[in-house]
Write a structure and sequence with these properties.
Layout (H helix, E strand, L loop, with lengths): L12 E14 L1 H6 L3 E6 L20 H12 L25 E6 L2 H4 L2 E2 L5 E3 L4 E4 L4 E4 L14 E5 L16 E3 L10 H5 L17 E3 L38 E3 L2 E8 L4 E7 L6 E4 L13 E9 L12 E4 L5 E6 L2 E6 L7 E5 L3 E9 L12 E9 L4 E8 L2 E7 L4 E7 L12 E8 L2 E6 L2 E7 L12 E3 L18 E2 L2 E4 L11 E2 L2 E9 L5 H10 L5 E6 L4 E4 L16 E3 L8 E3 L5 E19 L35 E8 L5 E12 L6 E8 L1
Parallel strand pairs: 19-31
Antiparallel strand pairs: 1-37, 2-3, 3-34, 4-37, 5-6, 5-37, 6-7, 7-33, 8-32, 9-10, 11-14, 12-13, 13-32, 14-28, 15-25, 15-32, 16-17, 16-30, 17-18, 19-22, 19-28, 20-21, 22-23, 23-24, 25-26, 26-27, 29-30, 33-34, 35-36, 37-40, 38-39
């Protein structure tokens, strides 16, 4: 019997998805025609209403785009990874967003489901930029194997990446509720009393609603230094963390933040300002991650710019040093000019240490001695106490030299390097220092070159329970009389604040700038150390690519201008002097990537049984060559007659032809075995 139609079963049908990759090649003209976009954006401490409007309040620096990128991909990345878009390579994709970012956007219509990992290539006038398949951008030719790329070995890291948010300590940097802010009609005296002491009617009535408070002044007298835990309300200012993946708790004491000399012309790394006259200090509680024995490898690196400590007799007030010679300069005080000479500062000024001091936490009961059963609540207090005499590392300045010490309690090993002599001109330069213990050797590298080393053979352990300190060795250090070196560097010299008029015995606080502080639980060879020094933050990556969203970002301050030389059509680019943006129209060398497009393959298996479809519908096989009769010709009854299949049609339930499959050549049917035809098409 001849069958014309046969019903499919569920096993006969399959829908198979697969990715197809389409190659795109653009120059500046074709990229513009296909809506590729480029933006230069940055964070600002200004109030939201200063850049959200039109005209003079228009968002000329693309702050809104910065906030969007920050919220969707970067903000609290380590602690809120669930809140970020796209697949995340948590271990392999670092995300570091500084003050500025360049954003390159590719339309979804081009890349489809995502940009194929490993296919991105952008050629500018200066660099060739590629991706590493894990969401990172890097300069073509960079060998990532010669950089510290194991985040678990980077046990402590403090750039500080978010230091730029504390350049202006007089304004709020985030959100709060409207109830936390005083009424605008409150007097200055009322505000200075403290928010919590103000009567209720001095607050906004609608306190249940949230408001944006960025740029709102904290008080009328902006603080000059930052100390952790002093900003209110505390629930909006959680504990300060370092920048490592371990999110170590840190505590700032009397710290200031400013831009360093590190980075590009238009974008600089933040730095931390330590002042010996205010007792600037950073501490982190004892952690075994920071602790090393004399037979263990470790590395400590940072960028440093020490300020000299000078004496000028009885002079008090602001002074400016003219010129860069650190031996004899002209000091200007008021209207008088006279010569001065930098004194030898032979006190220890600790830079990075885990020695001698630790903070212990205890409780006591008020008036317990006189009334043991009073039931008064227990009070919490903490104090600094001496730790063990052995230590894994002390790095400190003495005079113009930097020292790296280790001790097992019986023996102290020490090496040093001069970093502030006139021949290095380091009064006006920032230097990279890496101190490490490798095998049985202590080493100091200055700007990527090994300067000093010595062998060790400790008999006792060097581990201790001391806290980690930066800029000092505990708050028991002595302050400099009448102050220390001052505030910030200028183009051809430096500025000094209230300078010292004497000397106090004992260790002192460090005086100068420190940035990009790292502790690694391993040692590195000279190639690694050179790369750490040249990259500034120890990373080969200059930004990120978010494959599923079509965004690329240039975040590394040194490479901020990579896209500035691209010029996709007439793109807005921020001026280097933070003025209005200017327009460039340079030539994009090449933009290449592969778009990933999800395609579905439909597969139907048409199985013909041995007794099915064994006759033909061809009119030439009919006795009467007419569609009005189906009587077959006599020759079709012969055993030699075997019909052939040339076409397969798929119909819906209403017998509507939907799919037609044409065979490359006729296939003879069999009356002895089943025959299966497989139909495939993409949709």
């Amino acid at each position: 019997m001849a069958y014309v139609y046969k019903q499919f079963t569920a096993q006969d049908k399959a829908l198979i998805p697969f990715n197809a990759h389409k190659q795109y090649d653009f120059n500046n003209v074709s990229a513009l025609a296909n809506s590729a976009s480029y933006y230069s954006s940055r964070w600002t401490s200004e109030s939201y209403d200063l850049y959200s409007g039109t005209g003079s309040k228009s968002d000329i620096i693309n702050v809104i785009k910065y906030n969007q990128i920050d919220k969707l991909y970067y903000r609290n990345y380590l602690s809120q990874i669930h809140d970020k878009l796209g697949p995340i390579e948590y271990i392999k994709q670092p995300r570091n967003l500084y003050e500025k970012v360049n954003i390159f956007s590719i339309p979804m219509g081009l890349y489809g489901n995502q940009i194929k990992p490993g296919s991105f290539y952008l050629k500018s006038n200066t660099y060739d930029v590629i991706d590493d398949k894990f969401g990172n951008l890097l300069i073509s030719g960079s060998n990532t194997n010669n950089y510290p790329n194991n985040i678990q070995e980077n046990v402590f890291r403090l750039d500080p990446i978010k230091g730029f948010k504390k350049y202006d300590l007089g304004v709020h940097e985030g959100y709060t509720t409207i109830a936390e802010l005083p009424d605008p009609t409150a007097t200055k005296e009322m505000i200075e009393q403290g928010i919590e002491s103000l009567p209720l009617h001095y607050y906004h009535k609608n306190y249940e609603k949230n408001r944006w408070r960025r740029g709102t002044r904290i008080d009328y007298n902006s603080p000059t230094t930052f100390t952790s835990g002093q900003r209110k309300p505390l629930k909006f200012y959680p504990l300060d963390k370092d920048d490592s993946y371990f999110m170590n708790n840190i505590h700032y004491y009397n710290i200031a933040f400013n831009t360093s000399s590190l980075g590009s012309i238009a974008h600089k790394f933040p730095k931390i300002l330590f002042r010996s006259n205010t007792g600037s200090l950073i501490s982190s509680s004892h952690d075994e991650k920071f602790n090393f024995n004399g037979d263990e490898d470790f590395s400590l690196s940072f960028w440093i710019r020490p300020y000299p400590v000078v004496t000028v007799g009885k002079g008090i007030g602001f002074a400016a040093v003219i010129g860069s010679n650190d031996k004899d300069n002209i000091l200007t005080v008021g209207t008088g000019n006279f010569n001065f000479k930098k004194i030898t500062d032979n006190e220890k000024r600790y830079i990075l240490s885990k020695s001698k001091t630790k903070r212990v936490h205890s409780y006591h009961i008020k008036d317990f001695a006189n009334n043991p059963t009073s039931g008064l609540p227990m009070k919490h207090y903490s104090k600094e106490v001496p730790s063990e005499i052995q230590f894994p590392y002390e790095i400190y300045m003495r005079s113009s030299s930097l020292y790296f010490d280790m001790s097992d309690g019986d023996e102290i090993k020490s090496i040093n390097v001069e970093i502030s002599s006139s021949n290095t001109s380091s009064i006006n330069r920032t230097s990279h220092i890496l101190c490490q213990h490798s095998g049985s050797t202590m080493e100091i590298y200055f700007d990527g070159t090994k300067i000093s080393s010595t062998t060790t053979s400790f008999k006792n352990q060097t581990r201790n329970t001391a806290d980690l300190y930066i800029g000092g060795n505990g708050s028991s250090n002595n302050l400099d009389n009448n102050g220390g070196i001052g505030i910030s560097a200028i183009e051809n010299g430096f500025s000094i604040g209230n300078y010292i008029s004497g000397s106090v015995e004992g260790p002192k606080y460090f005086n100068g700038d420190i940035s990009n502080i790292n502790i690694w639980s391993r040692a590195y060879n000279s190639t690694f150390i050179k790369n750490i020094s040249e990259s500034i933050n120890g990373s080969p990556y200059i930004g990120n690519i978010f494959y599923q969203n079509g965004f690329t970002t240039i975040t590394h301050p040194t490479y901020y201008s990579v896209l500035n030389s691209v010029g996709i059509g007439n793109m807005m680019i921020e001026a280097t002097d933070n003025s209005d943006p200017f327009i460039v129209d340079n030539s994009l060398g090449t933009l290449q990537f592969q778009g990933t497009h999800l395609i579905y393959e439909n597969e139907y298996q048409c199985t013909v049984g041995e007794h099915e479809f064994n006759n033909t519908e061809n009119i030439s096989a009919r006795k009467y060559k007419s569609t009005n009769t189906h009587e077959l010709a006599d020759f079709t009854t012969s055993s030699l007659f075997k019909p052939h299949v040339t076409t397969i049609g798929l119909y819906d339930d209403n017998m509507e032809l939907l799919v037609v499959g044409k065979l490359g050549q006729p296939v003879r049917m069999s009356d002895e075995t089943d025959t299966t035809f497989v139909l495939r098409w993409d949709s």
